[in-house]
Amino acid sequence: MPVPKWLLRVLGFKVAIPPALVRFGHVLASAAFIAAGFGLYAFIAETDTLVCDRGTGQCTLTQATLTGTTVRRFPVAALTGAEIGARPTGMGGWRMRGVGGSSVVLLTGDEKVFLASYDSSFYEDQMKRQVEDVRRFVSTPSQAALGIRQDSHTLAAVAGGIVSLFGGAMLIFSLREKLRGK
């Protein structure tokens, strides 16, 4: 009865793994990283647009992701302010860390409405400007309209792109001999 190869490895004997099998493993790992990069983009990317019009007395918040679009309406009078806060887990953004990242939070009476979240200080100035825009709109009844747009596609593209590029580099490295014609 032959001795299993895994036992030979444990005991210190060298067992040759066919190069084609190693290359196949590298290709599978590369494909997993490339798919994870695209999945990360789909997971993070979100565009939120808030339009408030005193003429109609309505605010419309449109939240668009790759999985669908949600439209929410509420009265302009319900909008009492805005702040920057942590978006709860499960509301988009970086759910896997337990915190949804920083987000502009619209204060509407007893309810908080969260816009797209960013897990990066790069967007901090933009969020501060948007909070000030909302506060100015609330405190200035003569201002006819308010428009805010938050887009996390750039952040999602960078994060997903890095992971996908790593997978692509792994793929090229693992297939370099095949690509050279050897």
Can you give a write-up of this model?
41% of the residues lie in helices and 30% in strands. It is of the alpha+beta class and 182 residues long. The chain folds into two domains: 16-45 and 152-182; 46-151, no CATH class. Strands 3-2-1-7 form a four-stranded antiparallel sheet. It has a three-stranded antiparallel sheet with strand order 4-5-6, covered by helices on one side. Helix 2 packs antiparallel against helix 4 (153-174).
Mind sketching the topology for me?
Blueprint: H1 5-10, H2 19-44, E1 46-53, E2 58-65, E3 68-75, E4 79-86, E5 102-108, E6 111-118, H3 124-139, E7 145-151, H4 153-174, H5 176-180
Antiparallel strand pairs: 1-2, 1-7, 2-3, 4-5, 5-6
Helix pairs in contact: 2-4
Quick take:
The chain is 41% helix and 30% strand. With 182 residues, it is an alpha+beta fold.
Summary keywords:
alpha+beta; four-stranded antiparallel beta sheet; three-stranded antiparallel beta sheet; 7 strands
